[in-house]
Every structure is written in C-alpha cells, then in structure tokens.
Design a protein that fits this description.
By secondary structure, the chain is mainly α. It has a domain at 205-334: Serine Threonine Protein Phosphatase 5, Tetratricopeptide repeat (Alpha Horseshoe), CATH 1.25.40. The protein is 63% helix and 0% strand. It is built from 16 helices and no strands. The protein has helices at 15-52, 71-81, 85-96, 104-114, 119-132, 136-151, 155-167, 178-188, 195-203, 212-222, 229-240, 249-260, 269-281, 285-302, 312-324, 338-355. Helix 5 runs antiparallel to helix 6 and helix 6 packs across helix 7. The chain is globular and about 60 Å long. Residues 1-13 and 44-52 have low confidence and may be disordered.
C-alpha cells in the first residue's frame, strides 16, 4: 500500500501580481511627491503674497514725525484704517510726540487696535491707562493688564511691574517678589533690563545687601551674548565705574580690543571711544589719547553733514583732554538712591515701548499693488 503522499511543486508569483505591486508603489511615491510639491507651492505663494502685498501710499508714513494734520499724515491714517499694521504703528507713535498735536487718547485708540498684532503695543496701551487714565477704574484696568502680562512672563511687563512695586505706585496687592520678577525677565531677555543695569542692583544693594561678586558674575556671563553690544557696554562699565570693587581694568581692555578687532566695528566711534577709556583705565595714556583722537575724528565725520550735531562730540573732546593729562575717565553716578534708579528703569521701559512704534517703511523690490 502506498502512503498516498506526492510532493507538490512550489507556487510561482504571476506577472500580474508583480505589476499590481509595482503599481501601488508608484502610486504611493506619486502621492508623496504631490504632497511635497503642494507644500512647496503653498509656501512659495505665501512668500510671494507677503512680498507683493504693498501699497506705495505707505511711503507717506515716512514723512510723519508728529500728528500735525498734513497730507502725508492723512494718507498714513488712511493706510492704517485699511489695516496696514506698520502704518498704524507710525500713527500711534505720531500721536505720542510732545507738542501741540500730542493726543494720548488717539494714541491709545491705535494702541488698542494694534494689541492683537503686537504685544509691546498691548503693554503700552495698559501703561497709558495706568499713567493717565481719567478714572481710578481705568488706572486699575491698566495695572491689571500690566500684571497679567507679567504673570504670563512678558519681560517688559515684568520689569515695569517690578519698578511699580519698588516705587510703591501699585494699587493692586503685590503678589510677586521684585527680585524674582527682574531676574526672570533678565533670563528671558537682556533687552529690557541690560547687564550693566541689573549689575547696579547688586553692586548698590538696591534689593538687599551689596553683592559685588553677583554683579560681576552677571556682567562677565553677558559678554558672550549679543556681541559686540553687551561686551562694549560691560567694557565701558569696568573701565569707567567709580566703584573700584566692581571695576576690572584688565578685562575692560581685553573686551574693548576684542570688539574693535573685528572689521565691522573697527570704525565705530562708540566702540573706539570705549577702547580709549579702557587704555586710560590701565594707565596707557598715550594709547588712550591716540585712540580717543581717532574716535573724535570718526564722530565728527559721522555728523559733518548733519543739521543737529551729536552732543557727544563735546564729551569726546573732554575725554581726549583728560587722557592727554594722564587721567582716566570716571562715569558720574546717575542715581543717588534706589528710588531714582527704579524710576529710570520704569521710564526706560516706557520710552522703549514708544520708540518701538517708530517704523521706517521700505518698499519691496517686487511689483506693487496700485
């Protein structure tokens, strides 16, 4: 009796199966390719729209320097009413200018409109309410807005609120420690309170005991950021401070030399002026005099065709005479107390918020919408 078992040959895939598999692979590749191309095209369209969306009438805003009712100002207002954000910023800025055309009510109305597009305009609208609101309710509304933005970790709001707390200008209950607000804002942005400013809080003990080591630590750490801006300011402070515990003459020279060693900064009169002060602080008065003479030439050249020469020119000349007589320059202490210091911090936030509204409009190099 046989076992009834016979071996079957292996099955072969038909050509049809291969064709179907290849079809689905090609289809998948085509779909992926189409998606990528679609995304690229969409991005290109968005970039094109952002570049092309322009109206030549916006250039009228560049001639607006206050709210005087000129044709250019009327055109700029029209552009703002049509929804152009930069035009609205320039209009708000114009209404804030000192003089007979100043109108904080009008400025506030434009700031409110801008609040959906610009957090700094939003903060400034709260500051305006807090400072010049016509009722206690409006002032409280402004303070609440400032506090809410500070709670949300907006650095300018945090610095402003800390200043209000230190000066005792708040009406609402203080809920945050001043030092905590300042340090948190500083860690997020060194723009609203800069290293050379926050160091003075610790060097002068405005929020407790004097802590020179903390002040120096903050300064040295900041030299690595936003080069050469902070490095220059810190070199200046180390070279010119009247606080010899805070001063660091060798480091000031090292930083100043590093700044001007880079070609874009070698002919910047501000940076060359700092280098001269650093040379003088280290007793190198021949180098200081020569460098200061260069800085003076640079600033004179910068303003030779200006109707309003820089007031710094006289300071440059004064420092040159000082170095030639073998003396270092010492920056006068601006603040006699913590109150004066924090009042200046508060004012700087206000002025910077206003200055941020000033926008120079530049036409794109593409066809424009007429």
């Amino acid at each position: 009796m046989s076992d009834g078992y016979a071996e079957h040959p292996p099955k072969r895939k038909s050509i049809k199966n291969y064709v179907i598999g290849a079809f689905w692979i090609l289809l998948l590749v085509a779909i992926v390719f189409a998606i990528v191309r679609s995304q690229q095209a969409s991005k290109a369209r968005e970039e094109q729209v952002s570049e092309v969306m322009w109206d030549t009438q916006l250039l009228a805003c560049n001639s607006v320097y206050n709210a005087e009712p000129t044709d250019d100002f009327a055109t700029c207002i029209k552009m703002a009413e049509d929804g152009w954000i930069d035009a609205a910023s320039r209009v708000a800025w114009a209404y804030s200018r000192d003089g007979e055309y100043q109108s904080w009510q009008s400025a506030y109305e434009w700031l409110e409109w801008l609040s959906d597009h610009d957090e700094h305009a939003k903060l400034l609208s709260y500051v305006v309410l807090f400072e010049i609101g016509e009722s206690e309710e409006l002032k409280l509304s402004g303070e609440r807005g400032i506090r809410e933005m500070a709670v949300a970790n907006q650095p300018a709001a945090s610095i402003y609120l800390a200043s209000l707390y230190y000066l005792g200008l708040n009406t609402l209950e203080q809920r945050s420690n001043i030092a905590w607000l300042i340090n948190r804002a500083y860690q997020q942005s060194k723009y609203w309170i800069m290293p050379d400013v926050i160091s003075k809080i610790y060097a002068n003990g405005y929020l407790g005991s004097v802590d020179i080591s903390k002040a120096k630590q903050l300064l040295i750490e900041a030299t690595q950021e936003s080069f050469p801006f902070h490095a220059n300011n810190i070199a200046w402070l180390f070279a010119t401070t009247d606080n010899l515990d805070l001063a660091d003459f060798p480091l000031s020279l090292e930083l100043a030399q590093k700044v001007v060693s880079e070609e874009p900064h070698a002919n910047n009169y501000v940076y060359v002026d700092t280098l001269a002060a650093a040379y003088a602080a280290n007793g190198q008065f021949d180098e200081a005099s020569e460098t200061q003479a260069t800085a003076l030439d640079l600033i004179l050249k910068e303003y030779e065709n200006s109707d309003t020469p820089s007031p710094e020119i006289e300071n440059f000349k004064s420092r040159l005479s000082l170095f030639e007589s073998g003396k270092r320059y010492i920056e006068p202490e601006l603040y006699a107390s913590g109150e004066e210091f924090f009042d200046s911090v508060k004012n700087r936030v206000e002025q910077t918020l206003i200055e941020n509204l000033f926008v120079e409009l530049i036409a794109p190099e593409v066809p424009t919408v007429e």
